[in-house]
């Protein structure tokens, strides 16, 4: 177990350092901060975890690099890169403006976390459950198109990755999509979540994937708030039934009943 206060440094948890538990004094008091933009998302990350069975509690992770005057690949400023299986964050916060949380691969659990960004700020091909998380959208006036909260990159039918958001809330400044397709089988679900007017009526976009929306799984379940109005949603967006939602809204989606801490 490691206890932290505020540190200004770039941190890497390598593959051979399993079973680390990092605990802070709360996301408003303990932070790991760095400032770096790069064409390489992983290289820009303030905090990188590549070891299995990692748990963080009560810590803020920040990448303070400026976004720049134009929307370019140079502006990738990741706060956290998660590239390992069985990783969990409790009561943590993730701050950046662009590409905040690189949920690269593996099964992950986020509980009561705060995530802030403007463009594709939760992305990757992880198999992840976000429970009761707060998502704040920053307005980006440099671009003429709307940004997206998620850019999930499930490329194959045999892959079981996807991002699932259960409860919590989405709010912020400007307009944003719930997600954009970054892979042929891009999979994202928002369930029982408060959606403010920052969610544009279409809800979802496939603009970055030229193969069409036939295999996309972009779904909602009993969301509420002004942004949850389904009038104007894209034709491939799904509204789940109670039976369909059981699989997506349970920790069994990430096999969490096997590996999450017993005190969950």
Automatic annotation (TrEMBL):
Pfam families: Pectinesterase. It comes from the Eukaryota. Gene3D superfamilies: Single-stranded right-handed beta-helix, Pectin lyase-like. It is an enzyme of class 3 (hydrolase). One of its GO terms (biological process) is pectin catabolic process. The active site is at 120. One of its GO terms (molecular function) is pectinesterase activity. Keywords: Aspartyl esterase, Glycoprotein, Hydrolase. Its EC number is 3.1.1.11. It catalyses: [(1->4)-alpha-D-galacturonosyl methyl ester](n) + n H2O = [(1->4)-alpha-D-galacturonosyl](n) + n methanol + n H(+). Pathway: Glycan metabolism; pectin degradation; 2-dehydro-3-deoxy-D-gluconate from pectin: step 1/5. Residues 8-257 form the Pectinesterase catalytic domain. Acts in the modification of cell walls via demethylesterification of cell wall pectin. Belongs to the pectinesterase family. This is Pectinesterase. It comes from Gossypium darwinii (Darwin's cotton).
């Amino acid at each position: 177990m490691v206890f932290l206060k505020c540190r200004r440094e770039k941190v890497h948890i390598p593959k051979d350092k399993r079973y680390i538990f990092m605990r802070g004094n709360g996301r408003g008091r303990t932070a790991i901060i760095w400032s770096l933009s790069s064409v390489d998302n992983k290289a820009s990350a303030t905090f990188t975890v590549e070891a299995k069975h990692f748990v963080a509690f009560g810590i803020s992770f920040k990448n303070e690099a400026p976004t720049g005057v134009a929307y370019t690949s140079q502006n990738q400023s990741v706060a956290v890169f998660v590239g390992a299986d069985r990783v969990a964050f409790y009561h943590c916060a993730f701050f950046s403006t662009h590409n905040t949380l690189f949920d690269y691969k593996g099964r992950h659990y986020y509980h009561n976390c705060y995530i802030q960004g403007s463009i594709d700020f939760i992305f990757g091909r992880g198999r992840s459950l976000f429970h009761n998380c707060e998502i704040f959208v920053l307005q980006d006036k440099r671009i003429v198109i709307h940004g997206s909260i998620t850019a999930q990159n499930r490329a194959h039918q045999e892959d079981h990755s996807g991002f699932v958001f259960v409860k919590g809330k989405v709010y912020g400044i400007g307009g944003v999509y719930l997600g954009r397709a970054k892979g042929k089988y891009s999979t994202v679900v928002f369930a029982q979540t408060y959606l403010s007017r920052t969610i544009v009526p279409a809800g979802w976009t496939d603009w970055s994937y030229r193969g069409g929306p036939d295999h996309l799984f972009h779904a909602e379940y009993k969301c509420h708030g002004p942004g949850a109005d389904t009038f104007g949603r894209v034709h491939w967006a799904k509204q789940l039934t109670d039976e369909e939602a059981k699989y997506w809204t349970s920790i069994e989606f990430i096999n969490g009943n096997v590996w999450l801490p017993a005190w969950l």
